[in-house]
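## retry 2 of 3
previous attempt timed out at serialization; input unchanged, resubmitting
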Amino acid sequence: RSAHHPVKFANEFVQGISQRMKSTPIISMKKEDGWVAVTRHQSKYMYQPLVEELIHNQMNNNNSCALTQTNEEAVILVALLRKQGINSKLIQSMEGFPFWNLVEVRYFWKYIDKRVKTPLIPDALWEDAKRVTFAAYEKSQSLTYIKRCVQLFEQTNKAKYFSDFKEFILESSLEDFCDVSGTDVVVSTIHKAKGREFDDVYMLISDNYSKDAHLMRRYYVGMTRAKNRLFVHTNSSSFNRLGVDRYTDDQQQYTMPEEIVLQLSHKDVNLGFFKGLKQEVLVLRSGDALNYNNFCLYNTLTNKPVAKLSQNMQTTLLGWQEQGYKVKSASVRFIVAWKPKDAQKDESETAVLLADLVLSL
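## retry succeeded, writing output
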C-alpha cells in the first residue's frame, strides 16, 4: 500500500540488517512514486527542524505521524506541535501497568462483577455499568479509553459473556483504544506505531543507541509506516548511502525547547508512599491539576500529598534543573491499581498516581 520510493528505501535499508527472518523484498502496488527525504544533522537536538518541516508540509492535508524512539521525545514533540497550533495526539502507553489496572476500567468491571448472576451479562446491567462509570469519571481525560474499549467489545459481541469481556480486557493494551480520528498529526514511539499506516511519516532518529540488529529492525518498522512520504531527521550515519529524493546536511545547532513534559511511569514514583493514601488518590481524576513542591505532588484542593517521586526521578529532575528547567505545573495522567509482586493473595491493592510534569526554562 506504500508508494515506490519509500518501499525502495526500506528495501535498501533492510539489506544491512543481520539475522533477518524475511529476505524477500516488499513490493509497491501503488502508481505513485512517493518521496523520501533524509536530513543529517550535526546538532544533538532535532525537534525544531522536524516540527518546522512538518508544519511546512501540512498544507497538503495528509494524515501525518511523527515517530520517536522514546516516550520522552514523543511528549516533547507533542508539546512543540500544540504550541504551534497543530492538532496533535500522542499514542499513550501504560508502561509497567496493564490496561486492566486503569482505574476507570476497574470501576466498570467491578460494577458488573458485583451484580452479575449468570455467565451472560444482561443488557440492562451492561447499560447501567456504562451510565454509572461514565458519570463517575465524566471529568477524567482517561474516560475515552474505557468508552472505546466498551464500544469495540459491543461491536464484536452481541451476546456479552462475562468471561469473554474479562479476557478481552486482560489481552488489551491502552494503545488499542487510542482514537486518533480527526487528528492532524499523530505522535508515537516507533514501537507503538506498529500495525498503523500514515500518508506522511516523520522519524526522529537520535544517534544515542548502539546500532544492533534489534534497533535496525525497529527503524525498518518505522519507515514502513509511510504510505506516501517519509522524512527522516537524524544525527546518525544509519541512513547514509541510501537512495533518497533529497539528502540535506544540516550544520546548524539547535537547542532543547523552552518547555518539556515528563510523563512519570511506575519507576518514577515511590510506590510504597501510596500505602494508606488510597482514598486521597481515588478522588482525583485524570487531567486534574496538582501542586508540586520538593519532589512531592499535592491535591490542589486539600493540599495533602498524593505522590512522591522515586530517588531515580529525583536525580533526573535535578539534572534538568541544572540545565535551567523548573517544574512549571503538574497534573494527573493515570490512576492505576497496584500491589507488590510478593504481596499476599488477600492483600488489598494500592491506588497509584502517575503524573505529567511540565518543565520550563
